[in-house]
Description:
By secondary structure, the chain is α/β, with parallel strands linked by helices. The chain is built from 15 helices and 8 strands.
Amino acid sequence: MGIDGNENEDYVMVEVAKEVFGSELTIIELGETFGALAxxxxxxxxxxxxxxxxxxxxxxxxxxxxxxNQEDILxxxxxxxxxxxxxxxxxxxxxxxPVRPICITQPHHSKKEIMFTTFVFSIAxxxxxxxxxxxxxxxDSWVYPDTLSTAIKSIYCDERIGGTATRFSIHNRDESMxxxxxxxxxxxxxxxxxxxxxxxxxxxxxxxxxxxxxxxALEEAVVKWYGQSIFGxxxxxxxxxxxxxxxxxxxxxxxxxxLTLTATDTPTSxxxxxxxxxxxxxxxxxxxxxxxxxxxxxxxxxxxxxxxRFYVPLLNILIVVRYLSTGESSAFSSLPDIVAxxxxxxxxxxxxxxxxxxxxxxxxxxxxxxxxxxxxxxVWAGLSMFENTWGTTGRSRS
Length: 398
């Protein structure tokens, strides 16, 4: 597990890990992030932290050699992580201790930075123990006992599949009406969209709470994922979606397993929900606009789904503007079409994924909550695509 921060407020999470794992927990305190280390390797510029005689005792390992090209960066980082793990006697698993809980702390930067560090350490452990799959989840998510095994079995035999995700449930759905409707959205709109794309092996986002990666596919993608740059700008809030984009660009298939479950939380108030949806829309806009090559490599449905997500809301806005400016009405769809879509989708979601036909009104309302504001979310996402904050009250560094 990785903790983005090594100050007093961050050690509360370390204490939680100690309560859960007790004396079996290995704590590794890093004096710098592995993202900073990757930059040093890439530029061949030494840092004071490169010295094994400087920095925290947990980081005293021989520095990695400078890399001459991008392909050499990950092996150098993995070698450095391996040395640190060996220094803590935490590299190898054994029949007596098949799971080694490890908690990594580093200076505060961003979610993407701690993800990169933990990915490198996970790859080091996986290579040393011949582990083929890596699982990533968030601290606010619940992973059930059979989730990992079922997800692995679903892609084990197909080397083309670089990763898969599971279906969501919401564990705080009863905290507010917004949370209840948002939870129903995961059973309706999200499940239908993801299921359709997964049928073509082209799921465009492995969500943070429930992402399973084939190790070899992750090794190909992780350095390019971390180094993402658009016109010199480095996005930090689209980590999940861009990692999936990298798998797709490497010509890997990406799926989602509808019968495997992971529970996560959802915003409980309308302002928080709007912030979340705006952030997601911005990430979708960046990936869909800046990486069109994925549409040439994969099933046409991926392009169609992206077009529907981005350009149909824009078309709706143009229709409204035209009506307000000229008085001429037009429509991309019709009211009967919309009603039929709500009815069919809510019936299917309620009977197939939800708790029966009594939840049809709930799923219909959840689709309205999700679809009606999409035009505003997508337009603002396009106008603010380089916004790099999470919009929350926690620490933020862009």
